[in-house]
Amino acid sequence: LLDLPGIIEGAKDGKGRGRQVIAVARTCNLILIVLDVLKPLGHKKIIENELEGFGIRLNSKPPNIGFKKKDKGGINLTATCPQSELDTETVKSILAEYKIHNADVTLRSDATADDLIDVVEGNRVYIPCIYVLNKIDQISIEELDIIYKVPHCVPISAHHRWNFDDLLEKIWDYLKLVRIYTKPKGQLPDYTSPVVLPYCKTTVEDFCMKIHKNLIKDFKYALVWGSSVKHNPQKVGKDHTLEDEDVIQIVKK
């Protein structure tokens, strides 16, 4: 958990050591942008612009575009659905700016020119973000109701410690973490310190690699209790996908 200095306008161009601050943000799993509830929109826009300029895309998924350079054959464009903005000429002119004259491009969704540039540059990161609106003790209940309807926002009061539970809940949702408990042989499961995995890497093999890479070499099978198996315990291999709060026991060769 990192508390980064505030970002000023022009940070992406190096003002106020902004490039170092934003470079750290690129490596995070989740970004919390803390805003003053009395003037949130102006500040929100400045911070978003600075992060976007550094290749960080907030609360969005990578564009569904296939892109592969080749040695010859020109630009080959395939679209699997109707396109409102991109056609062969536009794609060719965008790629020409990057001195790319031979490539296969597959558009699997209605993409924009910015989407294509993001894919070509290939250095974008897609990070979930929560906007934390502080100082809600200074606004009315009616204003608070409006704020609650804004997507990705959580109103809090740091001074009075209001609504921290809601923020914690939202952080947990956005991080999509999976807790796996361990069970030593002949003992009760250890519920005090789970092994935490990201939701995209939750196989038994990922679990073993998280503990130590030698564990997978000696792996024979695993016993799993929890929602990912049909009966408790179930004997599984290393490709089995674990779910939140499963209990696992590794059996070595």
Automatic annotation (TrEMBL):
S-adenosyl-L-methionine: is it a keyword of this entry? no
Where does the OBG-type G domain start and stop, copy by copy?
Answer: 1-176
Source superkingdom: Eukaryota
Q: Does the keyword Zinc-finger apply?
A: no
Query: From the Swiss-Prot or TrEMBL record, what is one GO molecular function term?
Result: GTP binding
The TGS domain covers 176-252
Stretches of the chain forming a coiled coil according to its record = none
Name of the protein in its database record? DRG1 protein
Native source organism of the sequence: Nothocercus nigrocapillus
From which lineage does this chain's organism come? Eukaryota, Metazoa, Chordata, Craniata, Vertebrata
Gene of this entry: Drg1
